[in-house]
Amino acid sequence: RNLSTTLLASARTFVGAEKLPVPSVGQYLRAEIARRVTASGSGENSQWLQLAVLATCLKLECCISGTHSMDLVALEPFGEYISLPGLDCTFPGGYSSLPDRMLSALPEGTVLLNKAVRTIQWQGSFHEEGDNARDFPVRVECEDGDTFLADHVIITVPLGFLKERHQDFFQPSLPERKVEAIRHLGFGTNNKIFLEFEQPFWKPQQQLLEVVWEDESPLEEPSTDLEASWFKKLIGFVVLQPPEQHGHVLCGFIAGRESEYMETLSDTEVLDTMTRILRTLTGNPLLPAPRSVLRSRWHSAPYTRGSYSYVAVGSSGDDIDVLAQPLPENSEDPRPLQLLFAGEATHRTFYSTTHGALLSGWREAERLNHL
Questions:
Q1: Are both 222 and 249 inside the same structural domain?
Q2: What does DSSP assign to residue 78?
Q3: Which residue of 145, 183, 188, 245 is surrounded by the most CB atoms within 10 Å?
Q4: Domain CATH code at residue 158
Q5: Are residues 227 and 283 in the same domain?
Q6: Residues of the signal sequence (predicted)?
Q7: Which CATH number goes with the domain that contains 202?
Q8: Same domain, 208 and 351
Q9: Is residue 243 part of a domain?
Q10: Burial 145-182 (b: 16+ CB within 10 A, else e)
Q11: Is residue 63 exposed (0-12), middle (13-18) or buried (19+ Cβ within 10 Å)?
């Protein structure tokens, strides 16, 4: 684990480098692992165990980066991402308590739910019925046929949705530079699997159950047979604390195509597989099965199509800035800031995070305030 931490820190030192040893973080880590583990002089059994632990560490980094493989993550901009110090903040009522708090200060009816947008027309000349005096450059059409006219629209949909729908979502189409940024940036899937138990089989103060598969190595190609081995991408389980608040619950994390395959399975299939894994890990074939399972399905959700963004091979932090750039691009346009873009994928140093998404929203609100 110390070696993994050291190598990841080393991978963050290439920002601005003119010459790179390899294009991706994954390639760099594997080369360094091969060099250092071999040079360590430890016995064959020790090396074998080291490699198995490092394989789990790479899977953890896939969850953090929201990618199928670290081979997809660009090396040069990897160090631009900033990790804030301190512990993660858990909202007692779930994430919904954050927007609920924000909405409490707004007049009732300000936010319309279940109002899916079909298209955003911009650079137009639209008028409210019976009022030709007021000209609006933007028209938002919803799936139910309702329309809204506006001077400015802030678009916060996930990058996964933009990748799939940008061509028909905007009329006229987005400028090619922004389309290229959407195409080049990475967007992957990281899912959670919650398992609820009648009684805990772990120690009272235990925080984490990690999974290490002895037959795995970061130096070998992983299996592509998702049906047979999807569960091996699971990095382990966090114990939700305190049990007085959450009950006896484990939360597992799984990323990539294996995570997306998991979404296609039934709850029963997932629960049965998790039970089999935990019985294998504990060595207890009679370990009681969880009484319930709850999991996210970020890739299947039509308005997300994944979890969060990363800077992929072939892209850079500049693509994030291009994605965040308002339209029209001409600063002298008499009707500025028709389309503004926010969301985690538009924050150059906090992409993939909730605070990045929140700060990007404040950024675009301030942009409008300064008009």
A1: yes
A2: G
A3: 188
A4: 3.50.50.60
A5: yes
A6: none
A7: 3.90.660.10
A8: no
A9: yes
A10: eeebbeebbbbebbbbbbebbbeebbeeebeeebbebb
A11: buried
User: Per the structure block, which two tokens stand in for 253?
Assistant: 């994390």
Could you give the CA distance from residue 89 to residue 354 in angstroms, rounded to a whole number?
Answer: 10
Specify if 54 maps to a domain.
yes
Flag whether 291 is in a domain.
yes
In a domain, 90, yes or no: no
The b-or-e profile of 275-301 (16+ CB within 10 A means b, else e) is bebbeeeeeeeebebbeebebbebbee
The 10 Å Cβ neighbour count of residue 111 is 11
Q: Are residues 178 and 197 in the same domain?
A: no
Q: Which residue matches tokens 């940036």?
A: 185
pLDDT in tens, the chain (371 residues): 789 999 999 999 999 999 999 999 999 999 999 999 877 767 777 899 999 999 999 999 999 999 999 999 999 999 999 999 988 877 878 889 988 988 999 999 899 999 999 999 999 999 998 888 899 999 999 999 999 999 999 999 999 999 999 999 999 999 999 999 999 999 999 999 999 999 999 999 899 999 999 999 999 999 999 999 999 999 999 999 889 988 999 999 999 999 999 999 999 999 999 999 999 999 999 999 999 999 999 999 999 999 999 999 999 999 999 999 999 998 788 999 999 999 999 999 999 999 999 999 999 999 999 99
Omega cis (within 30) before 243: no
Structural domain harbouring 157: 97-107+116-186+304-369
- 291 and 220 in a single domain? The answer is yes
Six-digit token string for 78: 């990897």
**0.90 surpassed by pTM:** yes
- Quick check: 309 and 345 in contact, CB under 8 A? yes
CB 370 within 8 A of CB 183: no
| Cα 329 → chain centroid | 28
Give me the count of residues in the chain.
371
Q: Tokens 């858990």 map to which residue?
A: 90
Backbone angles phi, psi at 208, to 5 degrees: -145, 140
Q: Are 49 and 216 in contact (CB under 8 A)?
A: no
Q: Which of these three, 245, 268, 295, is where a domain ends?
A: 295
